[in-house]
Design goal:
alpha/beta; five-stranded parallel beta sheet
């Protein structure tokens, strides 16, 4: 049974991870691969609203997606988007990335190879990955305005969609840890983390929500 204190701390992390950017038209979108096909659904919705003429879906497979998405995250995203009505000509696939840094670097290289002029980027991720994606892209693609987007939903709605309470909290904790340690390693720009968010993160770690922590925390 997860306590009210744990839920409150998890909700605080969820709120911090959201960038709350207002989607606006960008020259390209990048849909970051994961277990969540909602990223592809959101890409289609934004495309229909005229927010971008082209999307790059990026991602290979991971321990959480190799069974659900055996052809690779980016390929499954493309299939989903086309099934929902997005034209194939509006989709590029980057099938090799295995982490957020590679998502950005390899997508950037693919766009350069395709001679796509990029003046702004709309990043589409899972809700709790918005800030991590933004911080990573800001580091690896300096000088290009970055807008973060995800499927609009509440914390409770996301928990219900995953149907694994502990896993969701573990993922929130893991994403926050990376925001704390990766800037010093040169992987992303430094984000201001309020003290109450750090305190909530530390309490959740003590409660054992640590399965998604990076091994290179030292």
């Amino acid at each position: 049974m997860i306590s009210a204190r744990v839920w409150a701390d998890a909700r605080r992390l969820w709120g911090y991870h959201l960038m709350r950017h207002e989607p606006r038209p960008c020259s390209v979108a990048i849909g970051l691969g994961s277990h969540d096909l909602g990223v592809a659904d959101t890409a289609v919705s934004l495309y229909r609203r005229g927010m971008m003429p082209l999307v790059v879906f990026t991602g290979a497979t991971s321990r959480t997606t190799r069974e659900r998405m055996p052809r690779g995250e980016a390929v499954h995203y493309r299939e989903r988007a086309i099934a929902l009505g997005m034209p194939g000509s509006a989709v590029l696939v980057e099938p090799c990335a295995r982490n957020t840094g590679e998502n950005i670097r390899l997508s950037r290289a693919l766009l350069q190879e395709a001679a796509v002029e990029v003046s702004s980027v709309l990043l589409i991720s899972k809700p709790y990955e918005e800030r991590r994606a933004y911080a990573t892209a800001s580091k690896l693609w300096p000088g290009v305005p970055i807008v973060s987007a995800s499927t609009p939903m509440s914390f409770e709605e996301y928990v219900d969609s995953i149907q694994d309470d502990r896993l969701v909290i573990d993922m929130l904790v893991g994403a926050l840890q990376r925001l704390l340690i990766y800037p010093a390693q040169g992987f992303m720009t430094r984000q201001v983390v309020p003290g109450e968010v750090t305190a909530a993160y530390e309490r959740l770690c003590r409660e054992g929500f640590t399965s998604r922590l990076a091994a290179d925390a030292g």
